Every structure is written in C-alpha cells, then in structure tokens.
Amino acid sequence: MLLLLCCSTQLFAQEQCDVQLGHGLIITEDVIRIVDKGQTRVQINNDNQLFIKGRWKILDEKESQVLMQYSKGLRDTVPELVSLATDGVNLGLTAIEQVVTGYTGKEPAVLKDQLQYVERALMDRFKKGDDFFYIAPQSLSKLDDFFEKEISGKIHSAVHGSLGAILVALGDAFESNEGNIEDRISDMGDRMDLIAKEIDRSLLRKAAQMEKKAAEYCGYLKLLDETETQLQQIVPELLDFDLVQVK
Q1: Exposure b/e, 93-120, CB count within 10 A at least 16 = b
Q2: What is the pLDDT of residues 152-211, one digit of tens each?
Q3: CA distances in angstroms from 160 to 109, 154, 156, 195, listed in the order given
C-alpha cells in the first residue's frame, strides 16, 4: 500500500477522487479518535485496540491486522495534510501584525478581530499541536477553494481594514511634526500593496500544494476506504461512524 505514495502525481491526477471525511479526527502518538459533535465515538489505542462508544471490541489476530492497517493508513495521511494546511499561514498573519503595528505603535482592533477570525476559520478545519493533529469533517477535494477564497478573502479584509487605523496614526504623526507625512503615506501604501500581493502568492501556492497532495493521495485514500469497509464488516457498529467516504 505504501508504494502508492511513491507513484507520480500525474498518475493519481488521472483519477477522479472526491473524498469526504465524515467525522472529525484527532491523532496523537498513541491514540486515534474519531469524534462527532465534540464526543469521541471511536478510539484506537496503539494501532491495535478498538473502542466504540467507550466499549472495547475484542479482535482476533487477523482482524487486528485489518485494524492496524487502517490505523497506519490514517497516520500516513492525515498529519501531513494538517501540517501542509497550517504551516506558513500563521507566519503570514504574524507578518501582517508586525507591519501594521510598526506604523500605528499598537495593533488596531479591526486588525486583531479580522486576524482572529482567520485563525479561527483555519483552526476549525485544521489544528496542529506539539503532540496532536486534528482535521474536521470536510471535503478533501476542495481544500484549494478554502485557501483561495475563504482564507484569502479574510486576510485581505484584515489588511484593508487596517488602512484607516494606519492613516489615523500617520495623521497624528503629521500633527506632531514627526517626519514627512507624504513620504510615510507613500511608503505605507507600497508596503501594504506588497503584503497583499505576497499573501495572494502564498495562498495560491498553498492551494496548489493541497490540490497536488489530494491528487497524490487519491489512490491511497481509496485503499484506505476499502480497508475501512473491511473493518466495518468485522465490526458493523463502525458503519455509524464512516470516516473515509470516496464518491
């Protein structure tokens, strides 16, 4: 199965792969949890121990191998997707804060609110900590739309919403005779324009990365779905918590 990861992106891109995650998923070093409405419904400990709604399901050796294959498949797929989704975005948000604060002397409330909204939107879908990965129920085939439209739009709102606060700060500086106001306004406009363009480039790269990775994982996710189906045949209660859905 892992050989699929070594195949070319072009090969997988030829497949039409519409993959949906039906539930949230949390992965730590020792535990995998399938969650629904904040509640753990399915838990896999150490890749070989299955709990459904808190009840331990005893499996024989052959059935345990299917569970391990499923667990390993999730571990080989989800953390990389989460890392790819989150890495770099927070750095971009920090850069915006630093530039705007450099002009105003403090972080404008409008910027803080907008950036917090962006962070929440991202963390509602993907979250990564020192010892865990989280991915929300969603389509893995439309991640590029999430970055190109939703996240990009909110970041642009944050940038443009900050212009007023910056101009007020520059006006105060002019009244205090602190430097040439025209030069500062021109410099501010250039910097904000560069920030917006760099954000666009960064998010387009992110969207392209996610689209490419979804294509790479297409065949692999189909096999993971098949493994999940095998596990559901062994433990029918798992049908209520179908995670990997390939359409």
Answers
A1: beebbebbeebbeebbebbeebbeebee
A2: 777 777 777 666 666 665 555 545 555 555 666 666 667 667 766 777 777 777 778 777
A3: 13, 10, 6, 11
Which two three-digit tokens encode residue 181?
């106001």
Of 245, 75, 106, 227, nearest in space to 172 by CA: 106
Beta bridge partners of 34: 25, 42
Helix, strand, or coil (residue 244): strand
- Yes or no: say if 143 and 207 are a contact pair by the CB < 8 Å rule: yes
SS3 assignment, position 46? coil
pTM of the model: 0.76
CA dist list (Å): 85 to 82, 103, 116, 144, 186 = 5, 30, 17, 10, 34
Structure tokens at 22: 């039906």
Say which DSSP state 236 is in.
Answer: G
